[in-house]
Design brief:
alpha/beta; Rossmann fold; six-stranded parallel β-sheet; 10 helices; 6 strands; Response regulator transcription factor; DNA binding; phosphoprotein; Sig_transdc_resp-reg_receiver; transcription
Length: about 220
């Protein structure tokens, strides 16, 4: 399957650079370029890309609001945020807006390609540092003790699926989960797919948040 990609960045040279890298891959096809958030929203509506590479700071409508609008009008599209600014508030806001990934623009080309494929496949791509800070940011808002009942959706999961979700919530990769639970990595991936479907979650990051908010994992 060819991954159809929209590139949104206010710098023409960067748009060209990203598109050039993507064009070298047999499974990827740049389908459009946007110079600002409004254009990104319009092209996402018209082209329905699989992945949008989205800059944060753009004139007019920024990448965060554009992400929110793209997810609303084209739910099947995944947004991968690319920025030169390694600031946590961008990551938190972008993920809350529905982005499936957050990378810096100095990421190596091969890492960008891997991240694009992962996001297109429905996974989430966020650096471990950002994930840790995300969880730290969530902790003050997560109930502890028995003051709140667990999310009823947990009852939809099998015992094994709960085990996998706990490991995901602890920040383990599929490879690490497979080694810890003595499963094949493909089996872990299948479990995660069913977990997301049963819990009506979009991606791995939402699964991490759910694991904490449902008190399946204690914030401490």
């Amino acid at each position: 399957m060819t991954i159809r990609i929209l590139v949104a960045d206010d710098e023409a040279l960067l748009r060209m650079a990203f598109s050039t890298v993507l064009e070298t891959q047999p499974d990827m096809a740049p389908v459009g370029e946007a110079a600002d958030g409004i254009q990104a929203i319009r092209l996402a509506r018209d082209l329905r890309p699989d992945v949008v590479l989205m800059d944060v700071r753009m004139p007019g409508t920024d990448g965060i609001e554009a992400t929110r609008q793209v997810i609303r009008i084209s739910p099947q599209s995944r947004v991968l945020i690319l920025t030169t600014f390694d600031l946590d508030e961008y990551a938190f806001t972008a993920l809350k807006a529905g982005a499936s990934g957050f990378l810096l623009k100095n990421t190596r080309p091969e890492e960008l390609l891997t991240a694009t494929r992962s996001v297109a496949a429905g996974d989430a791509v966020v650096s471990p540092r950002i994930t840790r800070r995300l969880l730290e940011n969530l902790r003050p808002h997560i109930p502890d003790g028995s003051s709140a009942e667990r999310d009823g959706r947990l009852s939809r999961l099998s015992a094994r699926e709960r085990e996998v979700l706990i490991k995901v919530g602890c920040g383990l990769s599929n490879t690490e989960i497979a080694a810890t639970l003595y499963l094949a990595e493909a089996t872990v991936k299948s479990h995660l797919g069913r977990i997301l479907q049963k819990l009506e979650l979009r991606d791995r990051i939402q699964a991490v948040i759910f694991a904490y908010e449902s008190r399946l994992i204690h914030p401490a």
